[in-house]
């Protein structure tokens, strides 16, 4: 079940933050990761994976490079083993198209 928590907002948007979201982000290893930071929990609310998967523990963020998209796919494969490969492929294709759209608009 996806749950979106808002943390690390600018001063003018601090009121949008969820109380305790920053502390949870810290607890799950995302304090210095940047946004978006993804964390996957099991049914016992224990962390099983997060988006700090690039070399040096860097965050995937919103994947756009081939390396980030491939690592995002591996993250989903690990954290959501019940997700079908074709579903993961559609997400990867979405990120590739988004990256291409951004590249063309520059």
In short:
By secondary structure, this protein is mainly alpha-helical.
Keywords, separated by commas or semicolons:
106 residues, mainly alpha, two-stranded antiparallel ribbon
Structural topology:
Elements: H1 21-27, E1 39-41, E2 47-50, H2 66-79, H3 85-104
Antiparallel strand pairs: 1-2
Question: Overview of this structure, please?
Answer:
With 106 residues, this protein is mostly helical. It has one domain. It is built from three helices and two strands. Strands 1-2 form a two-stranded antiparallel sheet. β1 and β2 form a beta hairpin. α2 (66-79) packs antiparallel against α3 (85-104). The radius of gyration is 15 Å and the shape is globular. The model has no long low-confidence stretch (mean pLDDT 93).
Unreliable residue stretches: none
> What is the CA-based Rg, rounded?
15 Å
* Approximate helicity band: 25-40%
Number of domains: 1
How far apart are the termini? 36 Å
Number-wise, the strands total 2
Q: Structural class of the secondary structure composition? A: mainly alpha
Strands of the widest sheet, in order across it, are: 1-2
| Mass-distribution shape | globular
- State which percent range the strand residues make up: 5-15%
Tell me, rounded to a whole number, the average pLDDT: 93
Order of helices and strands: HEEHH
Number of distinct helices? 3
Oligomer: single chain
Biggest sheet features: 2 strands, antiparallel
């Amino acid at each position: 079940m996806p749950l979106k928590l808002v943390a690390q907002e600018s001063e003018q948007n601090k009121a949008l933050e969820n109380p305790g979201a920053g502390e949870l982000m810290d607890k799950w290893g995302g304090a210095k990761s940047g946004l978006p930071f993804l964390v996957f929990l099991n049914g016992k609310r224990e962390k099983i994976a997060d988006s700090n998967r690039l070399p040096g523990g860097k965050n995937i963020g919103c994947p756009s490079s081939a390396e980030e998209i491939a690592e995002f796919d591996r993250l989903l494969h690990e954290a959501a083993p019940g997700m079908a490969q074709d579903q993961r492929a559609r997400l990867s294709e979405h990120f590739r198209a988004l990256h291409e759209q951004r590249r063309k608009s520059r």
